[in-house]
Design a protein that fits this description.
heterodimer; A: about 120 residues; mainly beta; 7-stranded mixed sheet; 4-stranded antiparallel sheet; 11 strands; B: about 110 residues
Chain lengths: ~120, ~110
Protein backbone atom coordinates (compact mmCIF):
# COMPACT_ATOMS: atom_id res chain seq x y z
CA UNK A 1 0.00 0.00 0.00
CA UNK A 2 0.98 3.64 -0.38
CA UNK A 3 3.30 4.77 2.40
CA UNK A 4 4.96 8.08 3.08
CA UNK A 5 7.24 8.33 6.10
CA UNK A 6 8.74 11.56 7.37
CA UNK A 7 11.96 11.81 9.33
CA UNK A 8 14.39 14.44 10.59
CA UNK A 9 12.19 16.59 12.77
CA UNK A 10 13.14 17.91 16.16
CA UNK A 11 13.88 21.03 18.15
CA UNK A 12 15.87 23.87 16.64
CA UNK A 13 16.65 27.42 17.77
CA UNK A 14 15.21 30.43 15.97
CA UNK A 15 17.36 31.25 12.96
CA UNK A 16 18.52 27.67 12.70
CA UNK A 17 18.11 25.08 9.98
CA UNK A 18 16.54 21.65 9.76
CA UNK A 19 16.17 19.10 7.01
CA UNK A 20 13.15 16.84 6.96
CA UNK A 21 12.85 13.88 4.62
CA UNK A 22 9.99 11.88 3.19
CA UNK A 23 10.51 8.33 1.99
CA UNK A 24 7.85 6.84 -0.25
CA UNK A 25 6.90 3.26 -1.01
CA UNK A 26 4.04 1.22 -2.44
CA UNK A 27 3.46 3.26 -5.60
CA UNK A 28 5.25 4.49 -8.70
CA UNK A 29 6.94 7.49 -7.11
CA UNK A 30 8.09 8.87 -10.49
CA UNK A 31 4.51 9.61 -11.54
CA UNK A 32 3.36 11.73 -8.61
CA UNK A 33 3.88 15.20 -7.24
CA UNK A 34 4.66 15.55 -3.55
CA UNK A 35 3.65 18.31 -1.17
CA UNK A 36 4.44 19.39 2.34
CA UNK A 37 1.51 20.51 4.50
CA UNK A 38 1.90 21.67 8.07
CA UNK A 39 -0.53 21.86 10.94
CA UNK A 40 -0.58 23.99 14.06
CA UNK A 41 -3.28 24.31 16.69
CA UNK A 42 -3.56 28.00 15.99
CA UNK A 43 -3.41 28.17 12.19
CA UNK A 44 -4.81 24.79 11.26
CA UNK A 45 -3.69 23.12 8.04
CA UNK A 46 -1.40 25.09 5.76
CA UNK A 47 0.02 23.99 2.43
CA UNK A 48 3.65 25.04 2.20
CA UNK A 49 5.42 23.43 -0.73
CA UNK A 50 5.08 21.36 -3.92
CA UNK A 51 7.48 19.50 -6.17
CA UNK A 52 6.35 18.06 -9.48
CA UNK A 53 6.78 14.40 -10.41
CA UNK A 54 10.03 15.15 -12.27
CA UNK A 55 11.37 17.76 -9.85
CA UNK A 56 11.28 20.51 -12.47
CA UNK A 57 8.54 22.58 -10.87
CA UNK A 58 8.63 23.77 -7.28
CA UNK A 59 6.27 26.12 -5.48
CA UNK A 60 6.20 27.59 -2.01
CA UNK A 61 3.76 29.39 0.21
CA UNK A 62 4.61 33.06 0.72
CA UNK A 63 5.25 32.39 4.40
CA UNK A 64 8.22 30.10 3.64
CA UNK A 65 9.36 31.33 0.22
CA UNK A 66 13.05 32.14 0.28
CA UNK A 67 13.64 30.18 3.48
CA UNK A 68 12.50 26.65 2.59
CA UNK A 69 13.66 24.55 -0.34
CA UNK A 70 12.12 21.35 -1.67
CA UNK A 71 13.87 18.69 -3.73
CA UNK A 72 13.37 15.09 -4.73
CA UNK A 73 15.45 12.09 -5.72
CA UNK A 74 13.35 9.68 -7.75
CA UNK A 75 16.02 6.98 -7.62
CA UNK A 76 15.71 6.95 -3.83
CA UNK A 77 11.96 7.71 -3.73
CA UNK A 78 12.70 10.57 -1.38
CA UNK A 79 11.66 14.19 -0.99
CA UNK A 80 13.65 16.64 1.11
CA UNK A 81 12.43 19.85 2.70
CA UNK A 82 15.34 22.04 3.70
CA UNK A 83 14.20 24.65 6.21
CA UNK A 84 16.45 27.63 6.90
CA UNK A 85 16.06 30.80 8.98
CA UNK A 86 13.46 29.04 11.09
CA UNK A 87 11.04 31.11 13.15
CA UNK A 88 8.92 30.19 16.18
CA UNK A 89 5.84 30.37 13.94
CA UNK A 90 7.26 27.48 11.87
CA UNK A 91 6.62 25.20 14.83
CA UNK A 92 4.16 22.62 13.54
CA UNK A 93 3.49 19.04 12.56
CA UNK A 94 4.83 18.62 9.03
CA UNK A 95 3.15 16.16 6.70
CA UNK A 96 4.49 14.72 3.46
CA UNK A 97 1.54 14.34 1.11
CA UNK A 98 1.02 12.79 -2.32
CA UNK A 99 -0.75 14.88 -4.91
CA UNK A 100 -3.20 13.18 -7.23
CA UNK A 101 -6.11 13.70 -9.63
CA UNK A 102 -6.56 16.77 -11.78
CA UNK A 103 -3.84 19.33 -11.18
CA UNK A 104 -2.10 17.28 -8.44
CA UNK A 105 -3.58 19.39 -5.65
CA UNK A 106 -5.83 16.68 -4.27
CA UNK A 107 -3.95 15.30 -1.26
CA UNK A 108 -4.76 11.62 -1.47
CA UNK A 109 -2.18 10.04 0.84
CA UNK A 110 -0.50 11.52 3.90
CA UNK A 111 2.46 10.48 5.99
CA UNK A 112 2.01 10.21 9.76
CA UNK A 113 3.76 13.57 10.19
CA UNK A 114 6.77 14.80 12.09
CA UNK A 115 7.10 17.54 14.67
CA UNK A 116 9.30 20.55 14.14
CA UNK A 117 9.71 22.83 17.14
CA UNK A 118 11.47 26.17 16.84
CA UNK A 119 12.33 27.44 20.28
CA UNK A 120 15.23 28.82 22.25
CA UNK B 1 -5.77 33.52 -0.91
CA UNK B 2 -9.22 31.97 -0.93
CA UNK B 3 -10.66 31.73 2.58
CA UNK B 4 -12.77 28.72 3.52
CA UNK B 5 -15.27 29.00 6.36
CA UNK B 6 -16.70 25.87 7.86
CA UNK B 7 -19.75 25.59 10.06
CA UNK B 8 -20.79 24.59 12.52
CA UNK B 9 -17.61 24.61 14.58
CA UNK B 10 -18.75 21.57 16.51
CA UNK B 11 -21.49 19.03 16.05
CA UNK B 12 -22.72 16.45 18.52
CA UNK B 13 -24.97 13.71 17.20
CA UNK B 14 -26.07 10.18 18.03
CA UNK B 15 -25.29 6.93 16.22
CA UNK B 16 -27.62 6.31 13.31
CA UNK B 17 -28.33 10.00 12.71
CA UNK B 18 -27.18 12.01 9.71
CA UNK B 19 -24.78 14.95 9.69
CA UNK B 20 -24.45 17.83 7.25
CA UNK B 21 -21.25 19.87 7.38
CA UNK B 22 -20.94 23.10 5.43
CA UNK B 23 -18.03 24.86 3.76
CA UNK B 24 -18.22 28.33 2.24
CA UNK B 25 -15.45 29.78 0.07
CA UNK B 26 -14.62 33.47 -0.35
CA UNK B 27 -14.51 33.14 -4.15
CA UNK B 28 -15.87 30.78 -6.75
CA UNK B 29 -13.95 27.50 -6.67
CA UNK B 30 -16.28 25.78 -9.18
CA UNK B 31 -16.25 22.16 -7.95
CA UNK B 32 -12.57 22.07 -7.01
CA UNK B 33 -13.26 21.30 -3.39
CA UNK B 34 -12.28 18.33 -1.26
CA UNK B 35 -13.05 17.01 2.20
CA UNK B 36 -10.72 15.36 4.70
CA UNK B 37 -11.27 13.52 7.97
CA UNK B 38 -8.78 13.72 10.81
CA UNK B 39 -8.95 11.58 13.93
CA UNK B 40 -6.93 12.38 17.07
CA UNK B 41 -3.26 11.58 16.65
CA UNK B 42 -3.63 10.78 12.96
CA UNK B 43 -2.96 12.53 9.68
CA UNK B 44 -5.90 13.78 7.64
CA UNK B 45 -7.49 11.29 5.24
CA UNK B 46 -9.01 12.21 1.91
CA UNK B 47 -12.76 11.56 1.81
CA UNK B 48 -14.01 13.45 -1.22
CA UNK B 49 -12.60 15.46 -4.10
CA UNK B 50 -14.10 17.61 -6.83
CA UNK B 51 -17.02 18.25 -4.47
CA UNK B 52 -18.79 14.93 -4.93
CA UNK B 53 -16.31 12.20 -5.91
CA UNK B 54 -15.57 9.74 -3.13
CA UNK B 55 -11.94 8.76 -2.66
CA UNK B 56 -11.16 5.04 -3.02
CA UNK B 57 -12.37 3.01 -0.06
CA UNK B 58 -14.71 5.68 1.30
CA UNK B 59 -18.16 4.22 2.01
CA UNK B 60 -21.27 5.47 0.28
CA UNK B 61 -22.50 6.89 3.63
CA UNK B 62 -20.30 9.87 2.79
CA UNK B 63 -21.57 12.18 0.08
CA UNK B 64 -20.59 15.63 -1.07
CA UNK B 65 -22.37 18.34 -3.00
CA UNK B 66 -22.14 21.95 -4.02
CA UNK B 67 -20.46 24.25 -6.49
CA UNK B 68 -19.31 27.83 -6.66
CA UNK B 69 -18.97 29.01 -3.08
CA UNK B 70 -21.30 26.70 -1.11
CA UNK B 71 -20.51 23.08 -0.36
CA UNK B 72 -21.66 20.38 1.99
CA UNK B 73 -20.55 16.99 3.23
CA UNK B 74 -23.29 14.65 4.37
CA UNK B 75 -22.62 11.58 6.47
CA UNK B 76 -25.54 9.22 6.97
CA UNK B 77 -26.03 6.41 9.49
CA UNK B 78 -23.42 7.88 11.81
CA UNK B 79 -21.10 5.53 13.66
CA UNK B 80 -18.96 6.28 16.73
CA UNK B 81 -15.88 5.87 14.51
CA UNK B 82 -17.01 8.94 12.52
CA UNK B 83 -15.97 11.14 15.45
CA UNK B 84 -13.28 13.39 13.97
CA UNK B 85 -12.49 16.83 12.67
CA UNK B 86 -13.55 17.38 9.06
CA UNK B 87 -11.76 19.88 6.83
CA UNK B 88 -12.58 21.25 3.41
CA UNK B 89 -9.87 22.30 0.94
CA UNK B 90 -9.94 24.20 -2.34
CA UNK B 91 -7.63 23.67 -5.29
CA UNK B 92 -9.18 26.17 -7.68
CA UNK B 93 -6.65 28.91 -7.02
CA UNK B 94 -3.06 28.86 -5.89
CA UNK B 95 -2.23 28.51 -3.07
CA UNK B 96 -4.44 25.61 -2.06
CA UNK B 97 -6.14 26.40 1.23
CA UNK B 98 -8.06 24.66 3.98
CA UNK B 99 -11.02 25.52 6.15
CA UNK B 100 -10.73 25.67 9.92
CA UNK B 101 -12.55 22.40 10.45
CA UNK B 102 -15.76 21.08 12.00
CA UNK B 103 -15.37 18.85 15.02
CA UNK B 104 -17.98 16.12 15.11
CA UNK B 105 -18.67 13.97 18.15
CA UNK B 106 -20.82 10.87 17.98
Amino acid sequence: QVQLVESGGGVVQPGGSLRVSCEASGFNFNFYSIHWVRQTPGKGLQWISFVSFDGNNKYYADSVNGRFSISRDNSKKTVILQMNSLRPEDTAMYYCVRGNYGGSYVFDNWGPGIWVTVSS
Amino acid sequence: EIVLTQFPDTLSLSPGESATLACQTSRNVYTYLGWYQQKPGQAPRLLMYDASTRAPGIPARFSGSGSGTQFSLTISSLEPDDSAIYYCQQRSEWPPSFGGGTKMEI
